[in-house]
Structures are given as C-alpha cells and as structure tokens.
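step: validate -> pass
step: tokenize input -> pass
step: predict -> running
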Amino acid sequence: MHRLARMYVHDDNLSHDIVQDVFASCLYRPTDTTISAAYLFNAVRNRCLNHIRNLDIRQRIMNTYFANWEEYDDKDWPDEKTLAEIISIVRHELPPQCRRVVELRFISGMKVEEIGGEIGISPRAVFKHIRHALSIIRKKLKENG
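step: predict -> pass
step: emit ->
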C-alpha cells in the first residue's frame, strides 16, 4: 500500500501518512466488519487522489513534472508555456551557468549535446546543471505553495 501511495504522491513521508490514516480509519469501524485487501488499496488510492485534488496549481506542476526526474528524459518535458512560467519565477535563484543551461534547454529548445558544445561542458555536466535547477525549482515552488 505504501508503494501505491508513493506512486501517486511521490513523497515517502506523505505516502506513509496516507497509509497510516487509512489504517486509523479502520479502527473506528464496527468490530464485526471485515476489511478486505481490495478495500484497503482502494482507500489508499482514494486518499491519494483527494490529496492531489486539494493541492494548489504550483504544487501540482511540481509533482507532475519534476518529482520523478532523477535523470533527464527528453520525452517527458512539459509544454513550453508551462516551462517558461516556471523558469521566469525562479530565474534569479539559479547560478549563472545553471541558468544559461536551463534557458538554452527549455526556452531555446536545444539538445543536451548542443548545449554542451555551445557552453564548452560535457553532456553529463549539462545533466547535472538541469538536475540542480530542477531541485531549486522544486524547493522554490514548495516555499511559495
């Protein structure tokens, strides 16, 4: 059940809390009621969906687009308008080279190899700059709600 909750909310602590809430709610049921595994899994899923529904838009963007990006994946980038809005919010928070990499990748639409060639760094360093920028964006979005 914890894995199911983790798939929805992308947060270990939150998924643990959701599963605990489901089990706690079972304590308040009449003692002669049987609770199936299917009921528990559905209850966890529903609580996760309720939590996601109650998040504000910035948190939804962060969870949807940035939560699973430990490594760069070119096919999962969000649309350009959303990226431009997010980048404009946190542009001043990024270090200069990191900002340059993010602008070239997201605003100019350049590929990793092209960015590395233009700036003079390896593709691996480009990945690291993107990962660092995403962590700063996650943090900033979390702070601003």
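step: describe -> Confidence is low (pLDDT under 50) at residues 68-76.
step: cleanup -> pass
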